[in-house]
Amino acid sequence: MVREDGKRNFVKMEDGERTAQFTGRMPRQAALKAARRLNGYERYDSENEAKADPTEIRLLERGTDRVHVYNAWAWVDDAPDNKPEWMEDEVSSITRGNVSKQGIEHLES
């Protein structure tokens, strides 16, 4: 279901359980948010390392039977020099994520 502001809600599914909700105008935007919250990203210091070991993310679009399937990876990177003011000075690293869409599946009624 599309909200008035054009955003849609997606629920992350793990082992048939609905674990977290992400919002975005497009499924990829929600998948990127989910990728940055992957467990175990601490062990990857570069995108190439993380990309070699992707994690499958399944996002159910609320109000539909569509499940968007992505391969996702996340890594820790140095915070940029021109970081925004709201980011604390002590923050020296940030989590980055990326995704690759694998397809769309439909839930059985």
Descriptive terms for the model:
mainly beta, 5-stranded antiparallel sheet, 5 strands
Would you give an account of this structure?
The chain is mostly beta strands and 109 residues long. The protein has one domain. Helices cover 14% and strands 45% of the residues. It has helices at residues 27-36, 47-51, and strands spanning 8-14, 17-24, 55-61, 66-78, 93-106. The chain has a 5-stranded antiparallel beta sheet. A hairpin with a 4-residue loop joins strand 3 and strand 4 (66-78). The two termini are 18 Å apart. The relative contact order is 0.22.
Name the poorly predicted regions. none
What distance lies between the first and last C-alpha atoms, to the nearest angstrom? 18 Å
Mean pLDDT score, rounded?
89
Taking strands numbered 1, 2, ... along the chain, how are they ordered across the largest sheet?
A: 2-1-3-4-5
% residues in beta strands: 35-45%
Fraction of helical residues: 10-25%
Report the sheet with the most strands, covering strand number, pairing sense and barrel closure: 5 strands, antiparallel
Overall structural class, as computed from helix and strand content, comes to mainly beta
Tertiary shape: globular
Number of helices: 2
Number of strands: 5
Whole-number total of structural domains: 1
Taken in chain order, the helices and strands follow as EEHHEEE
List the helices and strands and how they pair.
Blueprint: E1 8-14, E2 17-24, H1 27-36, H2 47-51, E3 55-61, E4 66-78, E5 93-106
Antiparallel strand pairs: 1-2, 1-3, 3-4, 4-5
